[in-house]
C-alpha cells in the first residue's frame, strides 16, 4: 500500500499519507498490520512464479541468485527484504522519503544490502531488472497508463513483472474500504475505491505497453484460512506479466 514513483504518477497527498505511517511499518500490530498478513500470501505466489519463469529449484533458498530485482512502491521494505534473502541484488523505490529512511535502517540492522531510492522512477536511471514487483501500488497513482509504461521500461529481456492490487467490485467497496477502515484494519484514507482497477483494465494497460498478463490469482479472506490465494478475484488479485511474443525489447 505504498506509493509508486514514475513520472506524472505520484500523488503528493498519497506519498504524505504513507510517509506518516513509516515509523510503524515494521510493527506487525501497528498501522501496517494488514500488510504483514498479506505479505506471506504474496510471497507464496511470487516464489512459485519465480521458480516457473526462471526454471529455479523449488527447494532452493536463493532462486534469485545472480539476478537483479526492483520493487516499486516499496514502503519500508516488507517485500524488498525477502527478495534480497532469495539472492537478488535488490533496488527498491518509494515516493515517501520517510519510508526510504525506515527501510534503510531496517535493512542495515538485518545486514541486508538493498539499494533504496527516493524519487521518480523514470528519473532515477536504474536500468533494467530480471524481476520487477509492484504490490498494492497502482491503485494509488495518478496516471495508471504512465505507471505501467514506467514499470515495463525497467523489465529486462526475458524478465518478469508481478503486480497485486484490489479489484473494483461491490465486495471490495464494502470490505476493503468500508469495513476495513471503519474497524481500523487499515488507516482511514488508505483506499479510494474509484481508483481500484479491474483485471480486465489492467490487462488492457499491459497490452498497450507490449506485455501479456498471466491468469490472475485472487487473494481472499475467510475465518478459517485468513488471507489466502484463491480463484475468487472479488477483493484483491495478484498477477504476472511478461513481454508479449513478437514485441521489441
TrEMBL record:
Gene Ontology MF term list: 2-polyprenyl-6-hydroxyphenol methylase activity; 3-demethylubiquinol 3-O-methyltransferase activity; lyase activity; polyprenyldihydroxybenzoate methyltransferase activity
Catalyses which reaction(s): a 3-(all-trans-polyprenyl)benzene-1,2-diol + S-adenosyl-L-methionine = a 2-methoxy-6-(all-trans-polyprenyl)phenol + S-adenosyl-L-homocysteine + H(+); a 3-demethylubiquinol + S-adenosyl-L-methionine = a ubiquinol + S-adenosyl-L-homocysteine + H(+)
Enzyme class, UniProt record, top EC level: transferase
EC annotation from Swiss-Prot or TrEMBL: 2.1.1.222, 2.1.1.64
Entry keywords, A to Z: Methyltransferase, S-adenosyl-L-methionine, Transferase, Ubiquinone, Ubiquinone biosynthesis
Functional pathway: Cofactor biosynthesis; ubiquinone biosynthesis
InterPro entries assigned: Fumarate_lyase_CS (IPR020557), SAM-dependent_MTases_sf (IPR029063), UbiG_MeTrfase (IPR010233)
Matching Pfam families: Methyltransf_23
Any single GO BP term: methylation
CDD domains assigned to the protein according to its UniProt record, in alphabetical order: AdoMet_MTases
Binding site for S-adenosyl-L-methionine: 42, 73, 94, 135
Family designation: Belongs to the methyltransferase superfamily. UbiG/COQ3 family.
Free-text function comment from the UniProt entry: O-methyltransferase that catalyzes the 2 O-methylation steps in the ubiquinone biosynthetic pathway.
Stored HAMAP family: UbiG (MF_00472)
Name by which UniProt lists this protein: Ubiquinone biosynthesis O-methyltransferase
The organism of origin for this protein: Novosphingobium fuchskuhlense
Recorded name of the encoding gene: ubiG
Amino acid at each position: 500500500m505504498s506509493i509508486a514513483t514514475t513520472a506524472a504518477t505520484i500523488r503528493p497527498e498519497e506519498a504524505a499519507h504513507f510517509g506518516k505511517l513509516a515509523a510503524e511499518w515494521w510493527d506487525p500490530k501497528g498501522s501496517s498490520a494488514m500488510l504483514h498478513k498479506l505479505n506471506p500470501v504474496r510471497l507464496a505466489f511470487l516464489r512459485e512464479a519465480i521458480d516457473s519463469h526462471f526454471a529455479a529449484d523449488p527447494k532452493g533458498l536463493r532462486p534469485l541468485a545472480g539476478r537483479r530485482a526492483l520493487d516499486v512502491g516499496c514502503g519500508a521494505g516488507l517485500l524488498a527484504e525477502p527478495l534480497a534473502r532469495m539472492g537478488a541484488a535488490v533496488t527498491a523505490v518509494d515516493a515517501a522519503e520517510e519510508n526510504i529512511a525506515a527501510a534503510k535502517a531496517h535493512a542495515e540492522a538485518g545486514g541486508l544490502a538493498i539499494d533504496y531510492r527516493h524519487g521518480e522512477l523514470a528519473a532515477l536511471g536504474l536500468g533494467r531488472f530480471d524481476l520487477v514487483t509492484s504490490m498494492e501500488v497502482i491503485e494509488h497513482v495518478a496516471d495508471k497508463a504512465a505507471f505501467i509504461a514506467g514499470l515495463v521500461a525497467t523489465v529486462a529481456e526475458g524478465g518478469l513483472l508481478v503486480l497485486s492490487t484490489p479489484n473494483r467490485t461491490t465486495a471490495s467497496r464494502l470490505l476493503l474500504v468500508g469495513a476495513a477502515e471503519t474497524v481500523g484494519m487499515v488507516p482511514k484514507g488508505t483506499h479510494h475505491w474509484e481508483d481500484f482497477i479491474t483485471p480486465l483494465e489492467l490487462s488492457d494497460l499491459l497490452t498497450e505497453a507490449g506485455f501479456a498478463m498471466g491468469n490472475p490469482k485472487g487473494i481472499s479472506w475467510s475465518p478459517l484460512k485468513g488471507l489466502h490465494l484463491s480463484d475468487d478475484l472479488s477483493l484483491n488479485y495478484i498477477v504476472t506479466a511478461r513481454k508479449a511474443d513478437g514485441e521489441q525489447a
